[in-house]
Design a protein that fits this description.
By secondary structure, this protein is of the alpha+beta class. The protein folds into two domains: about 1-65; about 70-210, NPCBM/NEW2 domain (Jelly Rolls), CATH 2.60.120.1060. It is about 30% helix and about 35% strand. It has one helix and eleven strands. The strands form two sheets. Strands 1, 3, 4, 6, 9 and 11 form a six-stranded antiparallel β-sheet that branches. The longest helix is centred in the first third of the chain and has 65 residues, at about 1-65.
Length: about 210
């Protein structure tokens, strides 16, 4: 009987040891699996991050493409060089503008202005070859002699997309034009007014002009 008890005790002790080893093994396997799973998850996450990075990059590009870009932040590709920055049309404030102050008559660096009958003309070219831009918008204003006329035009690759009149010394006039794909965008504004003592300086302002 004593021997059976000893055997039972040893068996119980051996079982406990075996169970402890088994438990430790199971824990080790689970930890290993968890680490492996984590690695896979990390790998998957890394792969996803890699894909995400590409997506993010694409998304960022898309955002840049769809977001507005003020012409005051771009370098002109040709034509007349405007002043860039803060200005006003009447009592309206436009912090991101391109404008031409006290424009001398019959003086323009743009070949497009040489074809315009008006004595005062300014035209500036911008590169749109990237295909990022689909719309131009601005608030235009022209100051000079009351009763004189003024007009504007937007051209893409030498084709006039849209044009129209501008009221002299009037409040800012909104312009919004869909832009076709092309390489070069040209903004032109001209007036029959001359800068001088009678009417003061002739100014052409594209308030908050932007591409989007």
């Amino acid at each position: 009987m004593a021997e059976q008890n000893d055997t039972r005790k040893r068996w119980t002790r051996d079982q406990k040891i075996a169970m402890g080893i088994l438990a430790a093994t199971v824990v080790g396997v689970l930890v290993a699996l968890g680490t492996s799973g984590g690695s896979k998850s990390t790998g998957s996450s890394t792969q996803g991050s890699s894909g995400g990075t590409v997506q993010t990059s694409t998304s960022t590009t898309g955002t840049a493409a769809s977001g507005p870009v003020y012409l005051s932040a771009l370098t002109p590709a040709g034509g007349d060089a405007p002043t860039r920055g803060d200005t006003e049309i009447g009592d309206q404030h436009f912090p991101h503008s391109i404008f031409y102050d006290n424009i001398p008559g019959n003086q323009s660096s743009s070949s497009a202005c040489q074809k315009v009958a008006d004595p005062t003309c300014q035209a500036t070219d911008y590169n749109i070859a990237s295909g990022r831009y689909h719309r131009f918008s601005a608030m235009i204003g022209v100051t000079g002699c009351s009763g004189d006329t003024a007009s504007w035009s937007l051209t893409v690759d030498s084709v006039v997309v849209k044009s129209g009149p501008v009221g002299m010394n009037s409040s800012a006039q909104p312009i919004s034009v869909a832009i076709p794909r092309g390489s070069s965008l040209e903004l032109l504004a001209s007036t029959s007014s001359f800068s001088g003592a009678a009417c003061g300086g002739v100014n052409i302002i594209w308030g908050n002009a932007k591409l989007s």
